[in-house]
Amino acid sequence: MANPDIDILICGAGAAGLTLAIDLARRGVSFRLIEKRETPFDGSRGKGVQPRSQEVFEDLGVLDKLMARGGLYPPQRHYRPDGGFTDRLMSDPVPASPAEPYHWALMVPQFLTEAVLRDRLAELGGVVEFGCELTAFTQDDEGVTANLMGPRGPETVRARYLIGADGGRSFVRRALGIGFPGKTLGVRAIGADVAVTGLDREVWHEWNDGDMARQVGLGPLPGTDLFQFQAPIPLEGEVDLSVAGLNAILTARSGRDDIRITAVHWASAFTMSARLADRYREGRVFLCGDAAHVHPPTGGQGLNTSVQDAYNLGWKLSARLSGAPDAVLDSYEAERRPVAAEVLGLSGRLLDAAKQGESKRGREVSQLDLSYRGGALAHDTRGGALAAGDRAPDAPVIGAAGQPVRLFELFKGPHWTLLLGGSATAPAARKGLSIHRVGGDIQDRAGCLADAYALGSDEAILVRPDGYVGAVLASAAAAGLDGYLARVGLELSPSI
Ligand SMILES: Cc1cc2nc3c(=O)[nH]c(=O)nc-3n(C[C@H](O)[C@H](O)[C@H](O)COP(=O)(O)OP(=O)(O)OC[C@H]3O[C@@H](n4cnc5c(N)ncnc54)[C@H](O)[C@@H]3O)c2cc1C
Hints:
By secondary structure, this protein is an alpha/beta fold.
């Protein structure tokens, strides 16, 4: 077989494929990102960007742009049959803390999120190949041979790995024969982006919530002049997604003929289901994002889970290509499949609650508490509130030049970060490892690092490139740390 042309072929340029491409681009890994659509997806559907995804997007260099284009979720206005209404927040306001800088879900229409990700990819020299479809592939010991149909006609490409980030109907998953068990959830709904007259944009308007036959909602989409239209519909039958069809539903359910839909920008009628792929990996082929799991939109988890799959996989692909053992790639499914299973349960419970008219959200949707504790990459010799596998908290500290700096700024980038206690033994230098000593080049003047990490003087905490704690070492005995670093592909730097 011919040598691979590229390291990674990513099939699908949705949120998962774009995130993976950005991560690979900043690591200098060669890839192609193909997308069968001729033009970018233009719907708002996955619009909730949860706090943990905001942290991921900060690391990838896009959070400020997302914040600028999006906004916070407005209060929900629940209209009563007598014409009165009650305004409610979707979540109770919780202030940010030094350890958790983002506590609110951002609302950004998915097409804007994807546009910001494409811009970032372009900054890093990457490109989406639109109008290019994966039509077949085979794999062998050295790589994957993929048949593409693109603007220039058929093409064959060799890659070391293929990533199926190709959505819920994944061609890659089907071609591999990977089961996608689950169930449909007995709910069908319209989601649409519409232009509306006669309605203010300060609140999310909801009528008849809890009544699946009469519920309808119109929410203002930040960064646009549009509203998102949502309405459950009967499981069977034709749906009229035109201006006239949506106005008919709106007027009948809201009783308001002063509100008019004047244009439909995007519309979809979808049946909700919950499904999880039996496996995420088959040799040199991986599933990522909706290709591996689909859930109902309640709780805004789908896009977030997909982005975080990609963020988990990117550094592992890069590590393997740099010589890490293959087991590092196995940890992708081991870590991410249980997360998706949990998210499936959560969004199903939230859907049941929504059927009863309950739309309040709590911390569980933030994805801040996801943990890989006990997994193959979690090495912990201390035990404690913060353990290997947990999300690494943020903390403001004072940097080497006396400047204020956040730990997340020190973590930012594709490297690993080792936090050493004052008297802990530093390991030998390795490419891709940043080392900071508390009381040395960083000062914990406000005590926030101590609060979050409880780092003892002879202890060390190793933070993975994706912001999770890899190792907690009661004493930074070189043996434990060196063994771990070798397992994840961090080679000793050559001595001069
Ligand atoms: C109506 C609706 C509402 C939703 N609401 C929310 C929400 O509020 N919050 C939330 O977090 N999530 C929501 N989601 C889910 C969210 O949209 C998805 O989880 C997210 O888009 C998944 O991203 P992805 O990149 O994995 O897949 P996708 O966005 O589906 O991208 C896959 C891409 O692969 C391409 N592709 C497929 N086959 C091929 C091929 N053979 N060759 C090349 N390209 C291919 C497709 O064209 C597509 O662009 C909603 C979903 C729907 C349908």
